[in-house]
Amino acid sequence: MRVLVVEDSEHLRRSVSTALRKAGYAVDAAADGEEGLWSAESNAYDVIVLDLMLPKLDGLTFLERLRHNGRTTAVLVLTAKASVADRVQGLQTGADDYLVKPFALEEFLARVQALCRRQYHQRDPHLVVGDLEINTAACTVTRHGNAIELTPREYRLLEYLARRAGQVVSRTDIWVHIYDEQTEPLSNTVDSAICTLRKKLDFPGAAPLLVTRRGLGYVLEHSAA
Prior knowledge:
The strands form 3 sheets. The protein has a 5-stranded parallel β-sheet with strand order 2-1-3-4-5, sandwiched between helices. Strands 6-7-8-9 form a 4-stranded antiparallel β-sheet, with helices on one face. Strands 10-11 form a two-stranded antiparallel sheet. It is of the alpha/beta class.
């Protein structure tokens, strides 16, 4: 899952970006509204984290232009403006959620995860593909009742594929949603990640869940054989 953080405070921008990366998200960051809007309209994001009091282009104007241009990316507003009127204005302008500074990182991450579910029209935190179950609230994975240990990046890759279960997902889609500007763009990065994930998901006697469609990409499906 890929997140854009638009925040002019360097300390907070680094803090939330680091927390998101540790949780396995791909993160891009911008220090002002103009740079942030350019990124938001040039890339595919699952969630945008947006400060309201930004240089060059304020957060409300950012939201207005984003929605006017047809972008439906979920937006979580982070702001020191705590009044009911401010919250109402932000939500009416196009924000999906609102978090007042200061805030706990645990709550922040939970809200980002909830917005990711909403983006894929999935309210239930449990994703089930055959005998594979993903608890997106606890970030845990089991197959046939057995726990599967994944790194944060592997977990986000699996979650993304599970949200698109039954669909062919191209290497480009995976790169855009799972990797960020800090990842060195090697030709086999996605293939290697898929290979590692497949080894962790499969066990003797079990049908493979993650298959390759040559020339197209990968699909996570219940009926793989």
